[in-house]
Write a structure and sequence with these properties.
Layout: H1 12-36, H2 47-72, H3 84-112, E1 119-121, E2 125-127, H4 137-168, H5 174-178
Helix pairs in contact: 1-2, 1-4, 2-3, 3-4
Family: Belongs to the cytochrome b561 family.
Membrane topology: Multi-pass membrane protein
GO biological process, one term: respiratory electron transport chain
């Protein structure tokens, strides 16, 4: 399998970035839901949010890499059977996924740095608090973070359902290309 995307298919780097981001988003969503139920005396009360923040920062770095990769190695061209509406829907859907994910991570950063302390990423390095002390920063960013998380997961589910529709109903190569299969 080739490393870079071609006009016909995704390369290994694009496929790995796609699936690692997808799994991480759903994993962080599950962890976030679970964290909300922790009480102060739970042994995970501090550890789970630290893990959530660390993975979130690493995901931000992966998304920057993914965004750069789109410029270095553009995605394959739309399939010939995709009409103008499908192409527009795909562009809008992908743009919303990217924007939603970056907004979600920025809101998480604003929650975590509201008290002015940096975010430790698994003890490997720290991300400084560049913006803190805004009125109700933690609460406002928390509400935005929760809404964006639900919206992003909903959008990702629609994205997956669209891929399944292309595969099982339209019987085209949309899903196969993201699974690394040769579609010729």
């Amino acid at each position: 399998m080739q490393w870079r995307n071609s006009p016909l298919r995704f390369g290994l780097v694009g496929i790995l970035l796609h699936w690692s981001v997808a799994l991480t988003v759903f994993g962080l969503f599950g962890l976030g839901l679970w964290m909300r139920g922790l009480d102060y005396y739970s042994p995970w009360y501090r550890t789970a949010p630290d893990i959530h923040k660390s993975i979130g920062i690493l995901l931000f770095l992966v998304m920057l890499l993914r965004l750069a990769w789109r410029f270095v190695s553009p995605p394959p061209e739309p399939l010939p059977g995709h009409g103008p509406l499908t192409r527009l829907g795909s562009r809008i859907g992908h743009a919303l996924l990217y924007l939603g994910l970056f907004a979600l991570m920025i809101s998480g950063y604003l929650i975590s740095t509201a008290d002015g302390r940096p975010i430790s990423v698994f003890g490997w390095f720290e991300v400084p608090a560049l913006l803190s002390g805004l009125p109700n920063q933690e609460d406002a960013a928390g509400e935005v973070h929760e809404l964006l998380a639900w919206g992003l997961v909903g959008l990702a589910i629609v994205h997956a359902l669209a891929a399944l529709k292309h595969h099982f109903i339209d019987r085209d190569a949309t899903l196969l290309r993201m699974l690394g299969r040769d579609t010729r």
